[in-house]
Amino acid sequence: MNRYRIAVLPGDGIGQEIIPQAVKVLKKVGEKYDLEFNFTEAPVGGAAIDIAGVPLPEDTMKLCQESEAILLGAIGGPKWDQLPTHIRPEAAALLPLRKRLGLYANIRPVALYPELVAASTLKEEVIAGTDMVVIRELTGGLYFGEKRREKTETGELALDTLIYTTEEIERIVRLAFETAKGRRNKVTSVDKANVLESGRLWRETVMKIAPDYPEVELDHMYVDNCAMQLVRSPKQFDVIVTENTFGDILTDQASMISGSIGMLASASIGGKVGLYEPSHGSAPDIAGQNKANPLATILSGAMMLEYSFHRLEAAQEIKEAVAKVLKKGYRTADLAEAGKKILGTEEMGNLVADEIR
Ligand code: NAD
Fold first, then answer.
1. CATH 3.40.718.10 domain extents, the chain
2. Which of 164, 190, 258, 260 suits 133 as a labelling partner, its CA being 20 to 30 A distant?
3. Helices (H), 89-222
4. In a 3-state reduction of DSSP, which class is residue 148?
């Protein structure tokens, strides 16, 4: 079957600008490889609050459940920041979307296109040749545990709970070992077992699973050390596996190895329907200005072809189209270097699409 239903959720801010670029590129690759994509758009996040009063309308949820994959832009922005947690776009749309679809694994490849080595703020000799995948647990931990606020005699107290079960840890860690088997056979498990009870369960569970993968080298790293090692010597990493909050923070940091957060694609998998989105947010500071880098979203489209539709050749075609455009010296403003041609969001999307023929 060559026909695929894709739910398209542009969301807020630059989501509205980058998603059309990814759709354009997917259509182009679809023509070449005889894949028919049926795109249906729906509101999510602040855009959905404005239309329907809630950030994740049931119609949007239903569309996602009935599709074969979801392409998401980004959610949130200053307009909705003051809303209470139960209706805030990020907490009340993004998290339930992931939870209800069972998307417990977020896969973020951090590789450096050689053409972008000078675009990074980090030194060339440190980052050249970096190629890692960060696997982040996505439906457990601090973001999903009990939350509460209470008045105290002197003010207020706020509580967030960090919960992990053996099963939640085991499934994500197994995915990391399996991923490493197809790469360089190395897993770095990142935790905070020296101070957190959940970190201790994390590490014990990893150690119990490791003997099932004798060919994979395993090391453990505390998250604070990992943050330092990522900028000190990122080439040491092959597959990093970590819990939700640590993965959120470490991947933003790791994005700078690839030149910009606008380069970091992601796939969220684990349920029936995969969700594909750039790792960045809605970038309100540049929204509506045709300045956003669409490549992370375009590359998320390539991950959709790979993980949801198993169309490896078509996925590779998109990655190569991106490489060709970068090689020709085209950049969005976030990747600007002296002597390069700076383009807007739409022009960058057009050039990538043009390379697919
Ligand atoms: P952000 O990722 O939106 O922006 C951080 C910085 O990176 C900004 O300077 C921005 O201009 C830049 N940037 C991000 N994406 C870029 C791109 N494609 N091209 C060029 N530059 C880019 O993070 P933030 O500012 O902390 O958050 C803004 C909003 O996005 C908040 O409401 C936040 O909650 C939300 N957010 C949503 C998601 C998501 O939808 N998955 C993820 C993170 C943040």
1. 1-111+260-357, 121-258
2. 164
3. 89, 95-100, 124-127, 166-181, 197-209
4. strand
* DSSP 8-state assignment for residue 195: T
Name every residue whose Cβ is closer than 8 Å to that of residue 90 and which is 6 or more positions away in sequence.
45, 75, 76
Digit-coded pLDDT (tens) for 271-294: 999 999 999 999 999 999 999 999
Catalytic (active-site) positions = 143, 192, 224, 248, 252
Asked if residues 103 and 268 have their Cβ atoms less than 8 Å apart, the reply is yes
What is the C-alpha to C-alpha distance for residues 199 and 204, in angstroms, rounded to an integer?
Answer: 9
300 alpha carbon – ligand 1 mean position (Å): 16
Look at domain 121-258 and name its CATH class. Answer: alpha beta
CA 169 to chain centre: 19
* C-alpha to C-alpha distance for 119 and 259, rounded to whole angstroms: 5
Q: Indicate whether this model's pTM tops 0.90.
A: yes
> Mind listing the pLDDT tens digit for each residue in 116-168?
998 889 999 999 999 999 999 999 999 999 999 999 999 999 999 999 999 99
Q: Which CATH class is domain 1-111+260-357?
A: alpha beta
Within 10 angstroms of residue 13's Cβ, the number of other Cβ atoms is 28
CB atoms within 10 A of CB 90: 21
Here the tokens at position 249 are 């923070």
Task: State whether the Cα torsion 121-125-129-130 is positive or negative.
Answer: negative
